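Run log, item B.
One chain of 83 residues. Sequence copied directly from the ordering sheet:
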Amino acid sequence: MLSTTKFNSLSLDEKISLLHYHGHRLATRNYEIHQIDLYELQGTYIEVWFIPGELDIQTIKVVEEQDITPFLDQIDIDKLIVA
């Protein structure tokens, strides 16, 4: 499992690269003007916040399991099961 401290110590470019190559996008939701993508990375849930149509990512942050509730109706459980 990736620790929050370790992930938070990475630069934005390192976080993006790690999610691109090793993360699994699970779901997307909208909040105000933002699109929020939920990723799973080594047992850790991570939100990527951005404004659609803009190139800049607003924030990337680790979220606790109990905080993924807004995404639950979109998550395919099969994506989380490792054979």
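Observations after the first pass:
- The longest strand covers residues 24-31.
- The chain has a mean pLDDT of 87.
Flagged for discussion on Thursday.
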